[in-house]
Amino acid sequence: MSIIKEFKEFAMKGSLIEISVAFIMGAAFGKVTTAFIDGVIMPIVGELTTGVDFKAMKYVLREAQYDTTGKIISPENAIQYGNFITIFIDFILVAFVMFLLIKMTNRFKAGDDKAGE
After folding, report:
1. Are 37 and 86 in contact (CB under 8 A)?
2. At 112, which helix (H) or strand (E)?
3. Number of structural domains the chain divides into
4. How are beta strands 77-79 and 65-66 bridged, if at all?
5. For 100, which DSSP code?
6. Phi, psi of 47 (to 5 degrees)
7. What is the CATH number of the domain that holds 27?
8. For residues 54 and 42, is the Cβ–Cβ distance under 8 A?
């Protein structure tokens, strides 16, 4: 069997195609979720925490250095912990939604098993 024919059989297997579609859908779902978190959830959280912008939260290790003309000699070095908080909230929400989807899928599968009896 030639390598090309073997590769074609491998690539056309249903499970590989399903995994590819799931990967693409997962990437799209991640973008939608991030947009939802950044555009809807974080502004609400910011208002509940008296207007805190989490993406601006940082701990500066070293201030930026400027020359006499105002040109940057060395940039600021900071720990961006606010961005981490935003991404962590994003992760928790995605994990929760995935948990709900799996729970719902398992419930439907259990219903199908009982219907076949």
Report:
1. yes
2. helix 81-115
3. 1
4. unpaired
5. H
6. -65, -40
7. 1.10.1200.120
8. yes
Dihedral sign of CA atoms 14, 16, 22, 25 in order: negative
DSSP string, 31-94: HHHHHHIIIIIHHHHHHHTTS--GGG--EEEE--EE-TTS-EEE--EEE-HHHHHHHHHHHHHH
pTM reported for the whole predicted model:
0.58
Range of the domain at 40: 3-115
Distance between start and end Cα atoms, the chain: 44
Question: CA-CA distance, 82 to 88, in Å (whole number)?
Answer: 10
pLDDT digits (tens, 9 = 90+) for 40-56: 888 888 788 887 777 78
